[in-house]
């Protein structure tokens, strides 16, 4: 099973700042990594798939990069609605499909 | 508009059973893999199971193998999760999602609580 480790667990930033979230895989997942955003009481929302492709309707301030074992989700300038929990998820070697533990982006 | 609506959650005793349903609309259900993903209270996301368009392939996370069964009825545009031998650690919000992975459509979730 591929283990995904996200860091940091919590990121405290102000609106307008740049957010950089990390996801590290226990073995290569090629480019088969996705990112999801989840707000309290809501279902997750797909942001990025296959490491760097924005899902339909996702703003350009969200970008993904990386391949192999190290991946990054960048939010170029935080908007108030971006404060949420973010999860990475791999599909290179499944089953099982696995998620990281999440990074909470909170208002500083 | 794509809609996924789960139902069937509730309180169940340890060792009991529950069947979850997911009603799909707004897309050609029979053309898509479908999945179940769960989230324990205050915890992260966990993929549970998925099923191919015609039901010929099904995959499960190890922790539910032999206890949970995913199925679908394409004539009724519905996805199901039969959960048997439930344990306290199965307590979670269960989401259905469209696709095998890269889930861009999710339901609102249904809460299953396993407790005596």
Describe the structure.
The complex is a heterodimer of chains A (108) and B (116). Helices cover 0% and strands 49% of the residues of chain A. Chain A is built from no helices and eleven strands. In chain A, strands 2, 4, 5, 6, 9, 10 and 11 form a seven-stranded mixed sheet that branches. A four-stranded antiparallel sheet of chain A has the order 1-3-8-7, with no helix packed on it. In chain A, a hairpin with a 2-residue loop joins strand 7 and strand 8. The relative contact order of chain A is 0.34. By secondary structure, chain B is mainly beta. Helices cover 0% and strands 48% of the residues of chain B. Chain B has no helices and ten strands. In chain B, the strands form two sheets. In chain B, strands 2-10-9-4-5-6 form a six-stranded mixed sheet, with no helix packed on it. The model of chain B has no long low-confidence stretch (mean pLDDT 98). At the A-B interface, strand 4, strand 5 and strand 10 of A face strand 5 of B.
């Amino acid at each position: 099973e591929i283990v995904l480790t996200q860091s940091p667990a919590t990121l405290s930033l102000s609106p307008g700042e740049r957010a950089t979230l990390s996801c590290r895989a226990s073995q290569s997942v090629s480019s088969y990594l996705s990112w999801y955003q989840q707000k309290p009481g809501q279902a997750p929302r797909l942001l990025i798939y296959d490491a760097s492709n924005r899902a339909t309707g996702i703003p350009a301030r969200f970008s993904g990069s990386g391949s192999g074992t190290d991946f990054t989700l960048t939010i170029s300038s935080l908007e108030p609605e971006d404060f949420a929990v973010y999860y990475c998820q791999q599909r290179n070697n499944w089953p099982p499909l696995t998620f990281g533990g999440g990074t909470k982006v909170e208002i500083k | 508009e794509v809609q996924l609506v789960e139902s069937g959650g509730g309180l169940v005793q340890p060792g009991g059973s529950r069947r979850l349903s997911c009603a799909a609309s707004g897309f050609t259900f029979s053309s898509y893999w479908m999945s179940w993903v769960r989230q324990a209270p205050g915890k992260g996301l966990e993929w549970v199971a998925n099923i191919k368009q015609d039901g010929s392939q099904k995959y499960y996370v190890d922790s539910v193998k032999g206890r949970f069964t995913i199925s679908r009825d394409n004539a009724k545009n519905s996805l199901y999760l039969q959960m048997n031998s439930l344990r306290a650690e199965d307590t979670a919000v269960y989401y259905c999602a469209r696709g095998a992975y890269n889930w861009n459509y999710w339901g609102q979730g249904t809460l299953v609580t396993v407790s005596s």
